[in-house]
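Pilot study result, target chain (429 residues):
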Amino acid sequence: MEIPAIETQSREVILQFQERKLQELMDYLAKNSPFYQKLFKDKNINPYSIQSLDDLHKIPLTTKEDLQKNNNEFICVDKEKIIDYVTTSGTMGKPITFALTDNDLDRLAYNEAVSFASAGVTNKDILLLTTTIDRRFMAGLAYFLGARKLGAGIVRVGSGLPALQWDTIKRVSPTVLIAVPSFIFKLIAYAEKNGIDYKQSSIKKAVCIGESLRNSDFTLNTLGQKITNLWDIELYSTYASTEMSTAFTECECSRGGHHHPELIIVEVLNESGAPCKEGEAGEVVVSTLQMEAMPLLRFKTGDICEWFQDNCKCGRTTLRLGPVIGRKKQMIKYKGTTLYPPALYNLLNEFEEISAFVIEVFTNNIGTDEIVIKVASKQETPRFQKKIKDHFRAKLRVAPKVEFKDFNTINKLRFPEMSRKPILFFDKR
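Predicted structure:
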């Protein structure tokens, strides 16, 4: 699949293109969205006065709480036009239902096809899907539709079941994994335990979701290094969400996820709501384009990223988003240090002795944040506990409390009954 023409144009051409799309979005919302019609009226905003990206600051931000409280008011079409319903995972609060029309599903397929193409996937590849396509999960559906649009083969094995994954690899010879990085590590562990020569398998690359693979400087983080040290495959990060219905996927240059200007407008804002400078971390705010059932305007994702605009060697000239540093609501203030959970995950993944972990944050009796790391390990000794704390102190200048728990206890916490993906962070503040 060729790179879409708009993604190789000059910044000026891309800006003009996005401003035309923004005007179309404003017109559509003014005519069809009960939520935004009320917002424009209450805030005395003339939607047709929003002509440029610079005008966006005149519009209030849309939050997850807005979606939770007014879910149905965001729907812009008659119920008869809705083809599919999905929900968010609800890891940051009450799950949100999203409706998609036939055109929205076509858009979702296009998004994933161009995203796969960014990662070098072609119609000659066969993709092994290790995430669920059911349980109202958008991602699995998007991957299936994207592979179909691209003309690639896909095997829908779903989550878990390492034995079935390896049996499928042997039978079908897929070339690309779609997986959460920590699950790839489990596949390797299963193969080694059961005498499977995974290094000689058909898998050549993995498109990774749900967990970060890279540090802020784009080098592989601990989990990424562990995988590639054991298995010589290419790893590609992708960042997406149900609300965006759009993915930012790395190309072979591994310098951040590429923006698709035909699908989404991106802002990266600081704490005061002003645009961040290039390379400066801020919250990702999006306005979705070409969405029919539930388009969003200036939606706060809660994700903290850096953005980059220098031209990429792959030929794309679009903005790129760096690895997700953390979720804004999950920011921890611990003994004067600001932390995000991914930084803690990265350090814990450096310990071979740790088989599983979860992190809990709560407010102590003096009103400050406390961190408890619950660890499953065969080395439940005071010496190993001190080793973990000393490592945190050396890397982050602070040492959280460390508790040992058995593996089954940790695993039940990581995989609650209704969860579609592992949960490593529990915010009890």
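One observation from the pilot: The first strand starts at residue 82 and ends at 87. A full batch analysis is planned for the follow-on phase.
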